[in-house]
Every structure is written in C-alpha cells, then in structure tokens.
Design brief:
By secondary structure, the protein is mainly beta. It has 3 domains: about 1-195, Immunoglobulins (Immunoglobulin-like, Sandwich), CATH 2.60.40; about 200-210 and about 265-345, Immunoglobulins (Immunoglobulin-like, Sandwich); about 355-440, Immunoglobulin-like, CATH 2.60.40. About 5% of the residues lie in helices and about 45% in strands. It contains 2 helices and 33 strands. The chain has helices at about 230-240, 245-255, and strands spanning about 1-5, 25-35, 50, 55, 65-80, 85-95, 100, 105, 110, 115-125, 130, 135, 145, 155-160, 165-170, 175-180, 190, 195, 210-215, 265-270, 280-290, 295-300, 305-310, 320-325, 345, 355-360, 365, 375-380, 390-395, 405, 415-425, 430-435, 435-440. A hairpin with a 6-residue loop joins β21 and β22 (about 295-300).
Length: about 450
C-alpha cells in the first residue's frame, strides 16, 4: 500500500523544510553549507565533500560551502584518508532554488566501524509514507537526516557504531515515533516506524531561554603547523555549553553571504530540552533593541537540539530574542505554535585589540573601546587548538583596566608562547576575544 506524498508544497516557507519534495531537479542555484566532524566532535580539515552536482574540500575549520546544486533532496558525502584508514560519513540536504541550506553537518568514522539503520515508515492504516523524515542523533553535530521513498523505505548509512542514537521518524500532520539504538560495527539494523494521528498539543513555550554573545576574529588563521580554528576550541573549553559545530557551520553561513574577514559576531541561544512526539521544531524570533515586539527570524528544524546560533549580527548592538515550539500541524491549524518563551535581551561588544607585551616584568596589554569591563588573559605554551589547554590564566583575579602583569610560573627562555584576552561585560554574558598574540620567553 502507498499513501500520497506527505507534504510537497511550501506553506509559509517553513514546514517544507521538514518534508521532502522528491528528487533534485532544476537549475544549479542552491548552496549547501556545513561542517565535517570526527567522533570526538573535532572539525576535520581537508576532507573531500561532494554531491551529485558539486565538490569541495573542508577548510582549516572543518567547514565547507558547496555551490551550484539542484533543488530537492541531495545526499552530501564526506571522506578523508588518514594513516591508510578511510573515514566516511554522509547527510541529506533539502534544497530550494536560489537558497542556501545550512547546518548540513557530517560526522565521519572509520569505514570498518560504520553501521546502517533502515526500514519503513507507515501510518496507522498501514499506508507507506513517502517523503517522511527520519533523523538519527547521537549528540555529535546535528541530526543525520534522510527521506523515505515512494515505498516508505529509508536507509541511514554510515552511522558510527558504539554510540546511542535516537532515531526519530516524523512528518507534518503526523505524530512522531522514536527509538534508541546502539549499533555494532558493520551492523545493518531494521527499524520500522508507525506514525500516529496528531493532536493539537497546546504546547507550553520553551523554558529558561538563555543567551550569550561572542565577538571574535572571523578568519580563524593557522598556527605554525597549520592547525584548526583556535577560537572555536577556546569557546568550547571556556563554556562547556558552547556548540562548536554550530559556530563553525555559522562561519559557512557568513561565507555564503560573502562576509569577508573581520569580526564574527554571534548570539548563542540555549533553552531547556523540549521533547514531544508532536514537535516539529522551533521558531526563532529576534528584534533590534530591547523590545518585546519580535519578528520571525528562522526555523530550527532539529526537534532534538535545544540551541541556536545567530551568526553575522552587528557588534556594539542590542538585540532581543524569543523561541516558540511548533507542532506537526503547524501552520495549517490554529494553536499549533506556542507562545514565546521568556524574552532575553543581549548586548554585543566590539573588537578587542591587543598591544605588544612589555617585559621587566612581563605585562599583557590591550586597547580600550571594546565595551568590556573585565578582562581575562589565557597563556598557552603551544598554538591554541584541539587538546591544547592554557597553562595559566587570571580568572581568579580579573583585570579591570587595559593591562595585566604576569604572576605565573617561570617561562622558558627562547620558547614561543601564545596568548589571547577575553573581555566580558553584562555579568559575563557579553564576550569578545582578541586575536592570538605571541612572544618569546
């Protein structure tokens, strides 16, 4: 038995983001962006990334931008060979003409560790559901996503064994169905889903919306041996809530808009986990200034991810944000979008510029004008990056002016040290990071 396509028209430009509309067709005007990660959530540089239409390589930040793709459903694949071992992964993008599809993140694993989940999606009457979505999420990156074919079949390939995946089938106008699975290497697991009839759940709004802002150099640069984006690694280590993959995918959004080098300004939004079988995703709302009159900004289509990164906003500015929960019947029925969450007001800072260190004693220096009122210095004995921690900081004794005298352990003469300064304001919720400076001990 076959049931007609679940959803194949645009309604408010929103619900179509969660339901496929058949194979890729039309002119090559779509752009796909994302990041390639390893199983430890570190970005993978110089990986080959390709679709049927386009091919590229990941940057030092693990990000990629694939231009000139067709509209529709396209599989995006990534592969890299290290020390004779092939690492591979994939995800699916749903493209629209002249639009950019973002956050198509890919986790790669050694091919001998990969596994597959496949099966069918039906409704309560036993009809196969075409163009339903199946997500698999294991806490790394964003969800892996595929679409069912005309027979209701799906296949999630190149999943990493040993992790617990939450596999969720969803479609607009149906209730979701989900199961947790742990896969073994090279396993092919069959998981079938039955989607029930939806109700109108009358969602409460998401709770405890919180936000921090960051200002950092937009061009990550490279250390003495190449390296990867040091600012993303620093943010993740300084604030464990920070979603590095969202930041790096955000860089690709900025690249896709033609943003050059300079400052990358972002707001990171967090809210309480919100799981419900009839959750479609989240509506993100924003307004300039400290106002409660918010306009729709974006649709966050991953129902398992209670976070969002707004990239490319302005420095030295004020913004207000709110989040809503959207039911699977949205937007066709009333009362299928919750009220706004609590509204958060944020202030972005400006660039924090370093001055050269002075000696006798060693003193770190920077310019005023960033808007910060408290400063932390972080010292590294190697260029910052993956698994490189700072060896000294002044978090127990912040600076409130434009310099700080080093009071840590002795430094090795002739050795090159690296440092950066983090300026904060508004109780630490507004943050700005300097470029990385260096000196010889």
């Amino acid at each position: 038995m076959k049931k007609s396509t679940v959803f194949c028209t645009l309604s408010l430009g929103l619900a179509a983001l969660l339901a496929g509309c058949g194979g890729a067709t039309g002119p090559l005007t779509s752009t796909i962006t994302g990041i390639v990660l390893d199983v430890d959530s570190n970005p993978v540089r110089d990986a080959r990334v390709w679709t049927h239409d386009a091919e590229t390589r990941t940057s030092s930040s693990g990000t990629y931008v694939l231009t000139a793709n067709r509209a529709g459903e396209l599989r995006v694949r990534a592969e890299i060979v290290k020390d004779g071992v092939t690492y591979r992964g994939s995800n699916w993008a749903l493209n629209f003409e002249d639009e950019q599809t973002q956050n198509v993140n890919i986790v790669v694993g050694a091919v001998h560790t990969l596994a597959t989940v496949r099966g069918t999606v039906r409704d309560l009457d036993g009809f196969f559901l075409e163009n339903a979505n199946v997500f698999a999420y294991n806490g790394i990156g964003s969800s892996v996503r595929v679409f069912t074919n005309a027979n209701g079949d799906y296949e999630l390939t190149e999943l990493i064994s040993g992790f617990t995946y939450t596999v969720t089938a969803s479609a607009r106008t149906y209730s979701n169905d989900a199961v947790d699975v742990v896969l073994t290497p090279l396993e092919v697991r069959t998981v079938n889903f039955v989607l029930g009839d939806p109700g109108i759940p009358n969602f409460d709004p998401p709770t405890n919306l919180d936000a921090v802002t960051w200002v950092s150099p937009a061009d990550p640069g490279r250390g003495p041996t190449g390296g990867q984006d040091p600012y993303a690694h620093f943010k993740k280590k300084y604030d464990p809530r920070y979603r590095q993959e969202s930041f790096l995918a955000g860089i690709t959004r900025a690249q896709g808009r033609g943003l050059g080098t300079g400052l990358l300004v972002e707001t990171d939004l967090f809210w309480d986990e919100f799981l419900h079988p009839e959750l479609l995703g989240f509506g993100i709302y924003r307004a300039p200034g400290a106002t409660s009159f918010l306009d729709f900004l974006d649709f966050s289509s991953d129902p398992m991810a209670p976070f969002y990164v707004d990239i490319g906003i302005n420095p030295d500015s004020t913004y207000s944000y709110g989040v809503t929960a959207l039911a699977t019947l949205f937007p066709d029925f009333p009362n299928t979008e919750s009220d706004l969450s609590n509204i958060v007001v944020v202030d972005t800072l400006n660039e924090l510029e370093l001055l050269n260190v002075t000696f006798g004693p060693l003193t770190f220096r920077w310019l005023s004008g960033s808007g910060a009122d408290e400063y932390l210095v972080f010292l590294f004995d190697r260029f910052p990056g993956v698994e490189v921690d700072w060896i000294w900081d002044n978090q127990g004794d912040p600076a409130f002016g434009t310099s700080y005298q080093y009071d840590g352990p002795g430094l090795t003469p002739g050795h090159t040290y690296y440092y950066l300064v983090l300026g904060t304001a508004n109780g630490g919720f507004s943050r700005t990071i300097s470029r990385i400076g260096s000196f010889q001990g």
